Amino acid sequence: MSPAESQSAAAVLMVRPACFGFNAETAESNAFQHRPSPAAAPAAPRTAALAEFDTVVSALRRAGVEVIVAEDTPDPPKPDAVFPNNWVSFHRDGRVVFYPMQAPSRRAERREALIAELVRTHGFSIYGTEDLSYREAEGKFLEGTGSLVLDRAARVAYACLSPRTDLDVLGEFAQRLGYEPVAFEAVDRQGRPIYHTNVLMAVGSEFAVVCAEAIPDPRQRAGVLSRLAATGHGVVEITHAQMASFAGNCLELSPPQGRLVVMSEAAWTSLRDGQREALQRQGAVLRVAIPTIERVGGGGIRCMLAEVHLPRRD
């Protein structure tokens, strides 16, 4: 039997991007992405994103989170390297999972050297890998904890189906890792499939943030909400507009100082007082402004954080 796994981690892996920018290859399925202004200097988004990245690292470290920063390699260019949670996840039983990525430009982000560094330099133990990347050859994808919102303690994997989140690969993940899959469809206000589950919902130890109105099927919506209630999660419902501000793209972490809810400044600003108070009851709220990464990259602060749940060496 796998060792019990807490919902939130005390350590995260982050990748400092070398070639951040708008990725036309991923924009077709990600409505959160926006091209930079034509008037902007070509290097301006990259420079701004690096400054935002460094600010997030500093804020997390001040809050007591162990932040492991890996440097991206410039060749080949990887405009989305700042989002490592899409290609890898780390688990309490010592397993590392590699995921199939839809965009060919993103597949180079999978770098086993980064994983080896966690063992060699940072004292974690790895006992095995689960490599789902072979599914790329079948045109089937599951982009890590972007596609999956994991309730690690209750072993439930929530996933909204999209071109980047395949039901068949979800089933394989669930079987290999011992999760109950909860699959559903979700759309934005224009009726487009939401590309990643983690922009519409987040699950903490005792709370969940969910854009329930994005799930058009009443039975699926009720199924998600009832499963969350059954596992003891108080639900903070957000609107489509708040989801568009990345309010669903938050993450609970557990540094030694106590639980932390991490979200962007835009996400926090979009919330109403009652929603903010509900999150503040879960722990200290850490918010950081990352407007370039959100707008140009189409991902939020949770997407920047690959939680490290691996056991430590004795």
Task: Give structural notes.
The protein is α/β, with parallel strands linked by helices. The protein has one domain: L-arginine/glycine Amidinotransferase, Chain A (5-stranded Propeller). It contains eleven helices and 15 strands. The chain has helices spanning 24-27, 44-62, 104-107, 112-120, 144-147, 167-177, 218-230, 240-244, 265-270, 273-280, 291-297; strands spanning 11-16, 66-71, 88-90, 95-98, 128-131, 149-151, 156-160, 180-184, 201-203, 207-210, 234-237, 251-253, 260-264, 284-288, 306-307. The strands form five sheets. The protein has a three-stranded mixed β-sheet with strand order 2-1-15, with helices on one face. Strands 3-4-5 form a three-stranded mixed β-sheet, with no helix packed on it. A three-stranded mixed β-sheet has the order 6-7-8, sandwiched between helices. β3 and β4 (95-98) form a beta hairpin. The longest helix is centred in the first third of the chain and has 19 residues, at 44-62. The radius of gyration is 18 Å and the shape is globular. It starts with 10 loop residues before the first strand and ends in a 7-residue tail after the last strand.
Descriptors:
three-stranded mixed β-sheet, alpha/beta, L-arginine/glycine Amidinotransferase, Chain A
Quick one: biggest sheet? 3 strands, mixed
The first-level CATH class is given as Alpha Beta
Task: Please identify which CATH superfamily we are dealing with.
Answer: L-arginine/glycine Amidinotransferase, Chain A
Give the structural class. alpha/beta
Beta content: 15-25%
Major sheet: arrangement of strands: 2-1-15
Q: If classified by CATH, what would the architecture be?
A: 5-stranded Propeller
Mean pLDDT: 94
Number of strands: 15
CATH topology: L-arginine/glycine Amidinotransferase, Chain A
Overall number of domains: 1
Radius of gyration: 18 Å
Pattern of helices and strands: EHHEEEHHEHEEHEEEHEHEEHHEHE
How many DSSP helices?
11
How far apart are the first and last residues' alpha carbons, in Å? 20 Å
**Morphology call:** globular
Are there runs of 5+ residues with pLDDT below 50, and where? none
Q: What is the percent of helical residues? A: 25-40%
